[in-house]
Amino acid sequence: xxxxxxxxxxxxxxxxxxxxxxxxxxxxxxxxxxxxxxxxxxxxxxxxxxxxxxxxxxxxxxxxx
Length: 65
Prior knowledge:
The chain has 65 residues and is α+β, with helices and mostly antiparallel strands. It contains 4 helices and 2 strands; from the N terminus they run H-E-H-E-H-H. The protein has helices spanning 2-7, 24-34, 44-54, 60-63, and strands at 17-20, 39-42. Strand 1 (17-20), helix 2 (24-34) and strand 2 (39-42) form a beta-alpha-beta unit. The chain is elongated and about 50 Å long. The model has no long low-confidence stretch (mean pLDDT 87).
């Protein structure tokens, strides 16, 4: 998908902010197409969901606030 965007004319020399779910393969693809000088932000909602799955049920109320 990213190479298709580049091939269709999306400039790769501009600065972009990529918000991703933390997938390492997606991060690697972004770096391959757009280089290493970019900003990548992990989606905070997705991160919270992943953390909450690991927290015991009785502690989720105080953790999610």
